[in-house]
Amino acid sequence: MIDPISIAMFVALFIVFVFLGFYGARWRKGDLTKLTEWGLAGKNIGAFLGWFLLGADIYTAYTFIAVPSSLFAKGSIYFFAAPYVIITYAFAMWAMPKFWKIANKRGYITVADFTREVFNSRLLAISVAIVGIVAELPYIALQIVGMQAVLIALLQGVGATQTIIELSLIVSFIILAAFTWTSGLRGATLGALLKDALILVSVVAVVVAVATLGDFHTAFVNASATTVHYFQLPANLYNAYWSLFVFSALALYLYPHVINGSLAQTDPKTVRKTASLLPLYSIGLAFLAMFGFMIYGVPAALNYVHSFPASVQGTQVVPGLILTLLPSWLSGAALLGIFIGGLVPAAIMAIAAANLFTRNIAKEINPKITPKGETRIAQVFAVVFKFLALGFVFVIPLTYAIQLQLFGGILILQILPAFIFGMITRKLNRRALFLGLLAGVVSGVYMMEAANNYAQWATTLIGTGLGPVFIGMIALAINIIIVVAGTLVANAMNVTNDLRKDVLLD
Amino acid sequence: MVDATDVVIVVLLVIPLLALLAIPTYNAINPNLGGVSFFYWYQILWMPLGALLYYIAAVLWNNKEKSGARAVGASARRSSRSRRRR
Fold it and tell me: Which residue in the set A83, A232, A276 is minimally distant from B20, CB to CB?
């Protein structure tokens, strides 16, 4: 199925991509010694470019690999990703312009900067930074899984499947680490432009090909013959469905790399207008998700997917459709789009995590670090974080890669009280906020392990009296209850809170 | 403090959420659209509809902030610039 033309196309475009990355690093070399210059790219991104860049941020390995994979394996429940990428933008339209204004006035570039000053608490700031960093790790791991899936598709037929999987994982990992080290965020941004262009071509090409060449009747008949619920939601999963999409929507705009992208825009009104139109971009995600069952209408692609072990099958849904339906030159380009669609976000996430580490942890512990030292620390930790992320790849069957992103969501949701409530009220006690965050993280990790019987992660739902629900919702509820109760107790005992009242909130 | 525009903005932002939370109303195979069940195309339909409602809300919201925020925004820009100079 694989042929030299698609491999040649893939390699040629990858060389262009790497060149752009290196060129970007050289071109702006003077700026790279300053850590703060890395993060926000000059606050110079307008409405159109912002829409283009943030919109293309949706198209990562999550969209191309993880969502279609889980829909293929588990059915309609994983279409929750569609309502998620609609309503998250309503939340963003309120929260991001508000944070943009506060951050601009006070010179913040991270949420930890904000919590440190408002709550006058190093402990809370460092905790928020650690949670932000750790939450990025599984999300980075998801991108590595996506890159690996593409390499498997490209290299299959060269040797035994297991050898290919291991080899491709190492290859994709080395490329990713080298890329981040040498080119930083400037290079990633330049590479992102090629990524966006290729990815838009990939989405359109695959959607058109499946829509015209796929046999929907066959898809319906064959998919109906399986035990998976593909065409509607089983009644016991209603609470799972809304808890997944509502709490994923709240989680997205808490991630360090997404906040970075929002702060990089020119002004708060642009941030709001850009967010309002982003649901249009989600249409492509919805179609890619439906490929999870549409593949039953393309027998050649289905045979291809079934040639893999069950634990990997789902990740090959979209690559399989690309290889069987597109002409070879286009399939090479589309696969590269997905490959760098994992690589660029992984680099951006690792850099965001490294920035957070340097600015809100290392600098907090040792304030005497020089600007040059800061950059070196960030570079080293961007690589270290990717090694840590790699660890997550082994705790899940690859077909369930979406659980990595959902686990990141469970963690990052725990900064919501300190960040979001912190922007609207001064009544919460900072020690209660810390205890709530701690309880949310601990209970979230515990429930994750318990729900999966302490084995590989295949679910982020846990059984309750109301049927299965998303663990992130329960962990956040525990967090909020402790914050409120702790604040009431502290007030009753007249514990001083010592907040900064002068930080602008409106 | 809360005026009619605020109410309209909140309603516009909440409509898509409610439409998508009402799972039993759209969890059906028929009417299907070219073989795609209602469950899927109903939710996809809310992507352009959501963008339209959100965009109207964004314009109303931005216009509302224009008068009051201009003075505050200008002084914020001035102070951040002077801070940078120091």
Answer: A83
Contact A90 B58 (CB under 8 A): no
CB pairs under 8 A between A and B: 111
Q: How many Å apart are CA A472 and CA A483, to the nearest integer? A: 16
CATH code of the domain containing A29: 1.20.1730.10
**ipTM for the complex?**
0.87
Of A46-60, A247-261, A370-384, the one with minimum mean pLDDT is A46-60
Domain membership of residue A356 (yes or no) is yes
Cα separation values, A196 from A49, A53, A66, A203, Å: 11, 8, 19, 10
- The whole-number average pLDDT for the span A128-143 is 92
Compare A152 and B55 and report the one with higher pLDDT. B55
Q: B8, B43, B63: best mutation site toward chain A, by most A Cβ within 10 Å?
A: B43
A236 close contact with B: CB closer than 8 A: no
pLDDT tens profile A446-491? 999 888 888 788 888 888 888 899 999 999 999 999 999 999 998 8
Q: Do residues A7 and A151 lie in contact, with contact meaning Cβ atoms separated by under 8 Å?
A: no
Residue A198 lies in a domain: yes
Rounded to whole angstroms, how far apart are CA atoms A446 and A466? 20
Measure the CA–CA gap between A482 and B41, rounded to whole angstroms: 41
| Residue ranges making up the domain that contains A367 | 4-396
If one counts the domains in chain A, the total is 1
Run of H or E including A462: strand A461-464
Phi and psi at residue A461, to the nearest 5°: -105, 145
Contact between chains at A79 and B40 (C-beta distance less than 8 A): yes
Q: Which of the 8 DSSP states describes residue A265? A: B
Q: Do B65 and A89 touch (CB under 8 A)?
A: no
Average pLDDT over every residue of A67-96 = 93
Hey, are the CB atoms on B62 and A273 less than 8 Å from each other?
Answer: yes
Q: Is A427 exposed, middle or buried (0-12, 13-18, 19+ CB in 10 A)?
A: exposed
